[in-house]
Amino acid sequence: MRRLCAFLTILFTLAFGLVSCASVDPYTGEEKTSNTTTGASIGAISGAILGAATSSKSDREKGIVTGAIVGGAIGAGIGHYMDQQEAALRERLVDSGVQVRREGDNIRLIMPGNITFAVNRYEIKPDFYEILNSVSEVLIEFDQTAIRIAGHTDSTGSFDYNQTLSEQRAGSVRSYLISRNVAAQRIKATGYGPRYPIADNGTEAGRQANRRVEMELQPL
Length: 220
What we know:
alpha+beta; globular; CATH 3.30.1330.60; two-stranded antiparallel ribbon; 220 residues; 7 strands; 7 helices
């Protein structure tokens, strides 16, 4: 029991030490934690807990060690995979107006209304095709991610109209990605209407920011 407690103390100390390791983001110049390292740390902790829960009393220490090793390897692999995908997206989307945000092991692309769709329309703008072509290339290269497309509108007009419009816009993006050979089963499209604004709908700039499409990439 004493050895087990000592091992758990070392494991958690190491994990939190790894999470605190930081590097400089080459695109923003900001210091950030390595997602590969974070994934390894979280995976090691999760694996250790699972190993303890699924092992017999006599083999519990061995189960914790094995779980930590396996979990850490899996977590590091996912983090590294998403790191590579994030870097590829940032490289291809530089100066495009699309925001690339990393949220743990997920990647979120925020595509504002001024580059996606005309007001009250769901047909893709000509300039948006080039952006989606770049995104499609990355999605095909990194095919171990699920794609969640979300359509959003401002609050002008009726709720039902905006809900339908947001669904149509998300569907348009999904259809275009499929036409570019991104596997249909990876893509889910949902419309949220005006429910999740990111800016003040009382200003034109705010309404334009709220008329957007977001794409979330999640490891499978």
